[in-house]
Automatic annotation (TrEMBL):
Reaction(s) this enzyme catalyzes, per UniProt: ATP + protein L-histidine = ADP + protein N-phospho-L-histidine
Coiled-coil ranges from the UniProt annotation: none
EC assignment: 2.7.13.3
Principal EC category: transferase
Annotated protein name in UniProt: histidine kinase
Part of the full-length chain shown: 187 to 427 of 427
Length: 241
């Protein structure tokens, strides 16, 4: 993330992170504090109390996920890479994301995967976080869309595995596409703009690449290409730290 930056630039980048993190955490804290004060000091009917507790819990959940996004970006990509079963990881993350998809009225489908396990050289935790980031974005792009669908497919092409994540959501303009991966770039009211910065960095470190096709109001297709295990050593991973 902080490639070849001077000490001064590093300090500036860190203060920027600290400032936006403080902002992301202070808002939900203020909200939760307000609800607790209401519950403690006013006479509320049971229904209201339950409603305030539910909102508070949602705020805390969101803060937790914001914190984990910030922590993942603060950590340099791990040097501990090993043999990782990508097809298994994809299935695990589809299961993990299914409740979020149902809540958002979006259908998730695994369209195609090779019959044999797909092995790559990676850090399993990083791969999971990357898959979550892309799927979360795809689901969030679909919330207002009728018959919303996110489909995934894994294909073996030459020396690589191509993971395609496709949605029929709001899509992006050429200008928006060109800004993808820039730190803090987000079009969402409660976005951090860190998910893709982190994901691109992890994929690059595996010797992989990301391509995107998108059209406003039609949808988006991300194609992530990662070298297969038997070819991964030939593309030495350039680690950024
Ligand atoms: P965040 O999700 O917190 O906004 P990300 O780095 O994950 O940050 O994504 C940055 C931006 O890229 C999003 O705010 C959105 O504008 C755009 N984006 C990413 N994925 C998609 C997608 N599947 N469809 C439409 N826009 C997307
Ligand atoms: Mg995101």
């Amino acid at each position: 993330l902080f490639i070849n930056y001077s000490e001064n630039e590093k300090f500036e980048a860190i203060s920027h992170v600290a400032a936006s993190l403080a902002h992301e955490v202070r808002n939900p804290l203020t909200a939760v504090k307000g609800f607790l004060q209401l519950i403690r000091y006013s006479t509320l009917e049971q229904g209201k109390i339950e409603q305030y507790i539910d909102i508070s819990l949602m705020e805390i959940d969101r803060t937790e996920s914001v914190l984990s996004e910030y922590l993942s970006i603060a950590k340099p990509p791990s040097k501990q890479m090993g043999k990782t079963n990508l097809s298994h990881q994809v299935q695990v993350i589809i299961d993990v994301m299914s409740s979020y998809a149902i809540m958002s009225n979006v259908e998730i489908e695994l369209e195609h995967k090779p019959v044999v396990p797909v092995w790559i050289i990676a850090n399993g935790d990083e791969v999971k976080q990357v898959l979550v980031n892309f799927m979360k974005n795809a689901i969030e792009a679909c919330v207002e869309v009728p018959h919303a669908k996110v489909s995934l497919s894994l294909n073996l092409v030459d020396r690589n595995v191509l993971l395609i994540i496709k949605d029929n959501g709001i899509g992006m303009s050429a200008d928006q596409i060109s800004r993808l991966g820039s730190i803090y770039y987000s079009t969402k009211s409660s976005g951090t703009g860190l998910g893709l910065t982190y994901s691109f960095q992890v994929i690059r470190a595996m010797g992989g690449s990301v391509a995107v096709q998108s059209e406003p109001r039609a949808g988006t297709r991300f194609t992530i290409s990662i070298p297969l295990l038997e070819y991964a050593q030939e593309t030495p991973a350039t680690r950024i730290s």
